[in-house]
Amino acid sequence: MRLLLVGGTGEARDLAAALDGTPGLRVVSSLAGAVSQPRLPVGEVRVGGFGGPSGLARWLLDKDVSAVVDASHPFAARISASCVAATAATGVPLLRLERPAWTAQPGDDWRLVPDVPAAAALLPPLGRRALVTTGRRDLPAFYAVPDVRILARCVDPPAHAVPPHVEILLDRGPYTVAAETRLMRRRGIDVLVTKNSGGALTEAKLEAARDLGLPVLMVQRPLVRPEDRPLHVVHEVDAAAEWVRALLPR
Fold it and tell me: pTM of the full predicted structure?
């Protein structure tokens, strides 16, 4: 049985490890290629897109794929919609492994926004030095923000020059609360801008902002149309592994 595991997340790597060595199962992890040096899961890996829903459907048929687990990033709406459409067209079972979103805790000062441009528009009244962790592709939204210095933390540098008020900090998680607190204090950060990605890997920045009393511009997850929502959704790696193993021939 061949499983396509659409990954790029910690949950996908954990699932690949949990399924590694399962008799009768071949796992192919798919990465989008958005990061130059991604953390690779165990087992077979392919890198790159499929060419939309029709291209993914052809790939599933050509490779005789028996099931798909979509464990992609919560903001990777395009590949998730392609998984739904392609598996519906081919009859291949689909499971969505989706990490829960973060929820505000007592002491948090969150301002919920629908997208990154909305976060950029609301930034000036909130602070003068912002830590922005929305990813390098979203940085242009902050280039015209007046009177705010941006410390943009990314895994890879932007492909273009950035304006003088934007500084790039190359780093990747996991992070600790102590380290995040030191960074915010040392750099004079007075507002945090982030996406509601969920998960423990980068959650420490939220606790640090809470402890320091900083406002957080929280970009909400993209809205998912009902037709792009799979029938089966789980939030834990163990549940996803159990779903896969249940499909194996007895």
Answer: 0.88
